[in-house]
Amino acid sequence: MVAPHSFKSLEVIHTLAEMRQLIAAWRRKGERIALVPTMGALHDGHLSLLEIAKANADRVVASIFLNPTQFAANEDLSTYPRREQEDLERLSKVPCDAAYLPSTAAMYP
Q: How many domains are there within the chain?
């Protein structure tokens, strides 16, 4: 797990409580917020979506969540690329204010 504030100008958030707190602070300032949901393994298409999001909002959040329910029994969740550090490095270089990386337990309590 990457520690919060590991990347310049990118907030790395792992809990729903932290995400809600950050969103609430932005909303109090009247800022518009865009979410770009991903499953990680970020590529240029994701980065393009972040650019578009920033053109339409004051703040941009990218979520990285590898959803196990999106894989059928004959698909292999274990082989899907997991590159958290590389993904966060890529996010820190594009217009993205926060990365939300929830756990499976948090998403499916």
A: 1
**What's the CATH code of the domain at 89?**
3.40.50.620
Structural domain includes residue 59: yes
Spell 5-40 as b/e; 16+ CB within 10 A means b.
eebeebbbbbeeeebeebbeebeeeeeebbebebeb
Query: Which tens digits make up the pLDDT trace of 21-46?
Result: 999 999 999 999 999 999 999 999 99
45 membership: H or E segment, kind and range: helix 44-56
Percent of the chain beyond pLDDT 70? 88
The question of whether 46 is a catalytic residue gets the answer yes
4 within a domain of the structure (yes/no)? no
Residue 3, in any domain of the structure: no
Catalytic residue among 5, 14, 43, 46: 46
